[in-house]
């Protein structure tokens, strides 16, 4: 029979699944099952439609007892093989007729779900063997899976759903995967940062953050510069830019929790922000002055009244009173490269580039927006993100400048940013380039000190110096999955028109 490549079989039995007879094989790398037509061979081959699950995607194999199932197996012939040199089980077994296997299944891009497979046999010893050897294989091969997590929950993040989502979506997944958790509910600003600075982090295999970008920023400030402990972000915030940028724009709480169970990790860049040679903050998403800085300053007083809608109201008001800001920018420009979107197994992020001898440049102009992006900042409102060509771990920041323009032109930029930000970069008054080191000085503004939007926090400084630190933090993720664009036509009219072009 055809099994997955290099999948050395440990156990093989005939079970019933949903009252249909299946041949189920447990190997070193995969679990496979296929219909056997009640075990009858025809022409030396088995009738089957094979399904397969990698071992690392299995959460648990455990007992599932249902007495009413016993009558379904009268007269069923069962055969069993014990392979691969595993020690035989003791003659004393726990009576059991069914075992349930919980595994993760990709529903669509960025979305993972749990599925349950119940295998049933009329022989107690067979199921007991599967429980024993299945758990042994999980312990042996799922070595990337964390054993103990420190979890922070922001109860007022976004729509205040953090506690509910954790109890309903995240906690059952961790319990099923046998991951021990220590839960802390944050009570005030920077609570997470203060705990991480004083906590003995050697007791944990990772940190799980149930909240938004603000909680992630607190954790970064608590961990850097010493700890390499990986972080997981369960999206429960207003924009969830970090979670959407590393897992995909449609990621949800269950999918993010299952990424932790998989144990895959990637490294992210972090920008260090200095004011007068003094480190004042780290930023991991966006640092912006102009429209987005003024928008955030207006939105914050409306947090408790409007919730997520505060950004819509503040954005409209800021657009009506939009003003330009004169800035002086000193930067080291990286030579132009072919634009590419960061995906899982990204080649650019894995490549080591020497950017130490770059030429320094300087510009001075009036701008509507000046932004520095460390990641793409995808979110449900902009699925491609504010900077679609930003990479997670290449050590470079992307500078986005919207030069002084009319309100109509700026509205056109915002619409393009929401639909497809690659089109926004093609506008004549928008420019973008990559750098590793940039100094920005605000020369004139209507306010005494300009408003900077630093990962959703307002920073008021006249001059800032930003330096990139490559792969400074580890996260539980595998990168954004690359999805091929479909050529499927929406109707017969479109198909006929397409055919006429050939």
From TrEMBL:
It comes from the Eukaryota. Residues 144-277 form the DAGKc domain. It holds the Pfam family PH_CERK. One of its GO terms (biological process) is ceramide metabolic process. InterPro entries: ATP-NAD_kinase_N, CERK_C, CERK_PH, Diacylglycerol_kinase_cat_dom, Lipid_Phosphate_FormReg, NAD/diacylglycerol_kinase_sf. GO terms for molecular function: ceramide kinase activity. GO terms for cellular component: membrane. Gene3D superfamilies: 2.60.200.40, Probable inorganic polyphosphate/atp-NAD kinase, domain 1. Transmembrane segments: none annotated. This is DgyrCDS1905. It comes from Dimorphilus gyrociliatus. The lineage of its organism: Eukaryota, Metazoa, Spiralia, Lophotrochozoa, Annelida.
């Amino acid at each position: 029979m055809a099994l997955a490549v290099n999948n050395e079989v440990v156990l093989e039995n005939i079970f019933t699944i949903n009252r249909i007879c299946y041949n189920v094989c447990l190997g070193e790398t995969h679990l496979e099952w296929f219909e056997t037509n009640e075990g009858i061979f025809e022409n030396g081959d088995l009738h089957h439609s094979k399904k397969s699950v990698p071992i690392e995607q299995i959460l648990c194999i455990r007992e599932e007892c249902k007495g009413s199932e016993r009558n379904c197996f009268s007269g069923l012939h069962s055969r069993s093989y014990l392979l691969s040199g595993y020690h035989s089980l003791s003659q004393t077994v726990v009576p059991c007729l069914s075992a349930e296997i919980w595994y993760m299944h990709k529903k669509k891009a960025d979305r993972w779900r749990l599925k349950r497979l119940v295998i049933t046999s009329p022989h107690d010893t067979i199921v007991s063997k599967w429980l024993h050897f299945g758990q042994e294989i999980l312990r042996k091969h799922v070595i990337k899976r964390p054993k103990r997590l420190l979890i922070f929950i922001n109860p007022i993040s976004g729509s205040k759903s953090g506690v509910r989502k954790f109890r309903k979506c995240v906690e059952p997944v961790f319990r099923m995967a046998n991951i021990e958790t220590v839960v802390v509910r944050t009570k005030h600003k920077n609570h997470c940062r203060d705990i991480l600075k004083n906590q003995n982090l050697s007791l944990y295999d990772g940190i799980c953050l149930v909240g938004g970008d603000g909680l992630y920023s607190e954790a970064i400030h608590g961990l850097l510069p010493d700890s390499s402990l990986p972080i997981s972000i369960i999206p429960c915030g207003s924009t969830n830019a970090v979670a959407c940028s590393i897992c995909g724009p449609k990621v949800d709480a269950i999918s993010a929790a299952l990424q932790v169970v998989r144990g895959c990790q990637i490294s992210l860049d972090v920008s260090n922000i200095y004011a007068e040679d003094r480190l004042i903050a780290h930023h991991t998403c966006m640092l912006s002055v102009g429209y987005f800085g003024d928008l955030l300053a207006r939105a914050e007083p409306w947090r408790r009244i409007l919730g997520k809608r505060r950004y819509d109201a503040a954005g409209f008001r800021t657009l009506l009173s939009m003003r330009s800001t004169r800035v002086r920018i000193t930067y080291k420009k990286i030579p132009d490269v072919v634009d590419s979107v960061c995906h899982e197994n990204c080649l650019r992020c894995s490549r080591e580039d020497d950017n130490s001898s770059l030429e320094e440049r300087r510009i001075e102009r009036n701008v509507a927006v000046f932004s520095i992006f460390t990641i793409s900042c995808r979110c449900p409102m902009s699925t491609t993100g504010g900077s679609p060509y930003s990479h997670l771990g290449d050590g470079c920041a992307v500078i986005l400048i919207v030069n002084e323009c009319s309100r109509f032109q700026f509205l056109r930029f915002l619409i393009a940013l929401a639909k497809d930000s690659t089109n926004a970069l093609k506008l004549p008054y928008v420019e973008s380039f990559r750098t590793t080191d940039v100094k920005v000085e605000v020369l004139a503004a209507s306010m005494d000190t300009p408003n900077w939007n630093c990962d959703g926090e307002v920073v008021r400084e006249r001059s800032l110096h930003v330096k990139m630190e490559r792969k400074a933090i580890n996260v539980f993720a595998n990168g954004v999955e690359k999805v091929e664009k479909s050529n499927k036509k929406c109707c017969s009219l479109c198909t006929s028109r397409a055919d006429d072009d050939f």
